[in-house]
TrEMBL record:
Required for mitochondrial cytochrome c oxidase (COX) assembly and respiration. Its main location: mitochondrion. It comes from Aspergillus heteromorphus CBS 117.55. It is found in: Mitochondrion inner membrane. The lineage of its organism: Eukaryota, Fungi, Dikarya, Ascomycota, Pezizomycotina. Coiled coil: none annotated. Residues 81-105 are annotated as: Disordered. Keywords: Chaperone, Disulfide bond, Membrane, Mitochondrion, Mitochondrion inner membrane. This is COX assembly mitochondrial protein. It comes from the Eukaryota. Residues 84-105 have a biased composition (Low complexity). One of its GO terms (cellular component) is mitochondrial inner membrane. Belongs to the CMC family. Pfam families: Cmc1.
């Protein structure tokens, strides 16, 4: 048994879920003989696809956040060791090699 199905997360499955509700509304005997089973399988497939899409978005966002945190940690380690922070995290658009090359000219 599913929890409440008609939520914003499952908006793409609304049509299939409504068809299942209509099938169940026909009565107990109709449900008992398995007339709604195909629709139920379609609902399950749709909900699984929606859940997979949400999980993928969450994973991608978590990976990006992790990259940001690791850059911050690397900069803090570099600062603690007396080194300059990594060029990718500095606000300047020039790298150390570009600066030294420009100074040598």
């Amino acid at each position: 048994m599913h929890s409440h199905l008609h939520t914003p997360y499952n908006a793409n499955c609304e049509e299939i879920m409504t068809a299942l509700d209509e099938c169940h509304a026909r009565g107990f005997f109709h449900k008992a003989i398995g007339s709604c089973n195909d629709i139920k399988r379609d609902v399950n497939k749709c909900l699984a696809a929606e859940r997979y899409a949400r999980a993928k978005l969450n994973r991608d966002a978590a990976k990006e956040n992790r990259k940001k945190i690791e850059r911050i940690w690397a900069d803090e380690r570099a600062f603690a060791e007396g080194l300059s922070p990594s060029p990718s995290s500095s606000s300047s658009s020039t790298t150390a090699s570009e600066t030294s090359a420009a100074a040598g000219k």
